[in-house]
Design goal:
Layout: E1 29-30, H1 33-37, E2 47-50, E3 55-59, E4 68-71, E5 83-87, E6 94-96, E7 106-109, E8 112-114, E9 119-120, E10 126-129, E11 138-142
Parallel strand pairs: 1-2
Antiparallel strand pairs: 2-3, 3-4, 5-11, 6-10, 7-8, 7-11, 9-10
């Protein structure tokens, strides 16, 4: 028995209504360059943001790992945002971030997105984590 795999376009006649503060394409915000380099489906022009070094990258001139180029300014996944990153102690759950937290704020622990039901602080400058397990060390919030 032969298996055939086909790839084609999906045509959509309307826009997406997002109901979560997550990228529509999981390749957009990645924890680090190791994860970036492991992207299987690539195309020239693909833009990603690595959280570990807060850098925007784009594939230019090909799709190999050596074709990732740092890009800045307009068009980046998080250009013009507030950013706060900190190494946390295991007991630390209340973090002063220096800017007002909004419903559009994105929180990451160890490079993994944290749902807004797992933190509080909208309208303040202090974010409080609401987690059962405190096994994390890197905190990042983007606005």
């Amino acid at each position: 028995m032969m298996s055939i795999m086909a790839f084609s376009q999906i045509e959509i006649g309307t826009n997406f209504e997002l109901i979560a503060p997550l990228p529509i394409d999981t390749r957009i915000a990645l924890s680090d360059t190791i994860v970036r380099n492991s992207i299987y489906w690539r195309y020239e022009g693909l833009k990603v943001f690595t959280l570990s070094d807060t850098t925007n990258w784009q594939l230019q001139g090909g799709v190999a790992d050596s074709n990732w180029v740092k890009v800045s300014g307009a068009g980046g996944s998080f250009s013009g945002t507030n950013l706060y990153e900190k190494e946390l102690t295991s007991a630390e759950v209340a973090i002063s971030v220096g800017f007002n937290i909004t419903s559009k704020s994105m929180v990451f622990l160890n490079g993994t997105y944290v749902k807004s039901t797992q933190w509080s602080g909208i309208g303040t400058k202090k974010l409080t984590l609401i987690l059962n397990i405190k096994q994390y060390d890197n905190f990042l919030i983007k606005q």
